[in-house]
Design goal:
9-stranded antiparallel sheet, Pnp Oxidase, Chain A, Split_barrel_FMN-bd, single chain, alpha+beta
Length: about 160
């Protein structure tokens, strides 16, 4: 599996589209997890890049984090509001590990406060998930062509063009 910093080196096109769309939506993405019965769940999430990792953290005791505790696999999709996908969209696939390092949690909380004013500095984290990526793709429309860029670890990005 691939860390965020490795991913940005190996898949610069997809990383750029993800970053652009992530910022454009105020960091909002849609997280797909698996429920206990195996059916999919889609939940909003504001993932953050922190200390070269893609971090999936948020409100404690949410069902999406219970899902990840049981099955660490996920898909993260940038929020799309344009049916023509004019600014592209991106999907990241992978699995999470739960990091229990309280000093890391404190640094994350301080950074979040410094950047947004949202204060969780005195709270204990139930989960601090770090994503390891197993694949990614983007969709962009350029000159009336649909360009799908695909990446898997150990392989270069490749583009499939649809007319």
């Amino acid at each position: 599996m691939t860390t965020w910093s490795e991913f940005t080196e190996q898949a610069p096109t997809i990383a750029a589209v993800f970053t652009r769309r992530h910022r454009a939506t105020g960091n909002l993405c849609m997280l797909a997890t698996l429920r206990a019965d195996g059916s999919p769940r889609i939940s909003p999430l504001e993932p953050r890049i922190f200390e070269d990792d893609l971090v999936l953290a948020g409100m404690p005791n949410t069902t999406k984090f219970h899902d990840l505790s049981r099955d660490p696999r996920f898909c993260l999709h940038t929020a799309t509001v344009d049916t023509m996908v004019g600014d592209g969209d991106a999907k990241l696939f992978g699995a999470v590990t739960d990091n229990h390092d309280e000093s890391l949690h404190r640094r994350f909380a301080q950074s979040l406060f410094d950047e947004t004013g949202f204060d969780i500095r005195d709270q204990k984290f139930d989960h601090y998930y770090i994503a390891a990526l197993t694949g990614a793709s983007t969709v962009e429309v350029i000159d009336d062509h649909l360009l799908i860029t695909i990446w898997t670890p150990g392989r270069a990005e490749h583009v499939v063009q649809k007319h």
